[in-house]
Specification:
Structural class: alpha+beta
Strand order of the largest sheet: 4-5-6-9-7-11
Order of helices and strands: HEHEEEEEEEHEHHEEEHH
Mean pLDDT: 85
Radius of gyration: 21 Å
Length: 241
Amino acid sequence: MSVRIPLDYQPVSPSLSNAKSAKRKVLKMGFTTGTALSAASKGCAHALKGEMKDAVVVSTPIGLRLEIPLNYVKVDGEWCESSVTKNGGDDPDDTNGMEIIVRMRLNNDIGFITLKAIRGLGLVINKGLPVKPGEPAINPVPRKQLIDNLKEVLGEKFGAEIEVIIPRGDSISRKTFNPKLGIEGGVSILGTSGIVKPMSLISWFASMVEQLDVARNYGLDYVVLVPGNIGETSARRKLSR
């Protein structure tokens, strides 16, 4: 199967998909707040083992490994403090450029990590969210990502206490849906993939039109629009019944 294309070829499709997407800017990817938390914690884990790092390699839930720079790492007695700046790439996200600070120490509570929201990290107050009321707003996947990365440094058997400080978290959270969702005092630690795929309005519209074109060609009359991976999973479960 082949196709002959003239050297003066120009897209002529009436769909925005072909006409605009070919010219759109290539956007930079970034990493989630969950990856940032894992990086700062992993930096502390290395330091508490006697290894001071300028950057750490973080595993993500989708299997990619990212090198994340650390703003600083300092040890004071049994405690270590480390800082990471969340980089969302070209994604228009209010948390882009937000600092996440972790204070961490090892303890004798073997087999458990205690997570504490000190400042700027939200607390869940409503039921129905993935995290129980009264707990720091760190979603389940970032919690698992954090544990997996700490195990790479500390092994399978350890205990730790982690305090999270997000200096601008309270003010940033007011620009998000957190107050309406029942999360107070700060932002959430999110991310089901560990990476951020940026979408400008034009590129999002172009990709949507392409998918709608395919659906129409299959004779489908309806589509389901979801905000992300969690929405897609929920829609698949509900519609497959």
